[in-house]
Amino acid sequence: MKRKIRLVITFVFLAISLPLLVWGFWPPRRETRVVPLLPVDGMPSLPEARTIHLTFSPVMSAGDTQIVELNLSADGESADTSLYEAYNVIVEARLELPFADVRPADIVSTALGEGGAATFYWEVNPHETGDLRGTVWLYLRFIPRAGGEETRQPVAAQLIDIRSKSILGRTGGEARAIGVVGSLVGLLLGFPFAQVRRTSPNKIAPIEPRPPV
Q1: Could you tell me which CATH number the domain at 28-165 has?
Q2: Which stretches of the chain score pLDDT less than 50?
């Protein structure tokens, strides 16, 4: 009877803990959106064709942090370098995502050279479960090397949707902790330590001498 109760308790622990363990440690799916950088009226155009890559996880565990990455890369080389000789080109980016902690929260920027790339990273931690919707902004600044008025305009604005999910009301960290502890308790209950029984040592029979041939 005690053995049956122990097996039932073991099954209950593992049935609850294993799904939490798998859900907590399963890596979220990453998605990459690729769009071309289009020219904007009223400002100089980059001489190379360029592409914007936005990579993030559309679904994540509540309480966890994910990395959102934005990359602006050149598609091949340009034969005309006059724009980079006439301007200092600065790329700026910002992630607006209400109801989430975003680091860095302000605009980040980097210089853009001929054929070079610009990459930005944000840490995102939602405040609560549910759907989040925000915008990833990309700006270009052209600063004349010879002096004069600079030009700054947004060149891309991409919507970003992130769903923060929980399981049984638990965050990702809580699910991992409960899953690990519950699985260990279930395994210990299901496979108890065997008792070591003392056995008497085997007696060795004396070797009888053989008669001479």
Answers
A1: 2.60.40.10
A2: 193-200, 204
